[in-house]
Amino acid sequence: xxxxxxxxxxxxxxxxxxxxxxxxxxxxxxxxxxxxxxxxxxxxxxxxxxxxxxxxxxxxxxxxxxxxxxxxxxxxxxxxxxxxxxxxxxxxxxxxxxxxxxxxxxxxxxxxxxxxxxxxxxxxxxxxx
Length: 129
Known about the structure:
Layout: E1 2-8, E2 16-19, E3 27-30, H1 33-53, H2 64-68, E4 77-82, H3 101-114, H4 118-128
Antiparallel strand pairs: 1-2, 1-4, 2-3
Helix pairs in contact: 3-4
């Protein structure tokens, strides 16, 4: 998915400011234009991951042309950041993990006490970390 980003030019005293219009509250900055774009990509990925974790919907990006016509962004620099949604997917994948038997027994006991499966218990712990 490709999200347009609006970049307000920086100078020696101010960083380049970045706004992602399709993702409310998603913003970033960088000391250089390249750094601003890289940081914006990271901000978009974190914003999307948070929405997914909270069970929300991922907004579809609008076109650059649509945003360039908005006078609110007059004089801003435009770029696009591409995000691979497959990397944020909640699709279940089977994995093989090797653990010491005593650790596995502890995991199983804690999962049972929590009313969860082994996999669910480990996933919840990882998401909280």
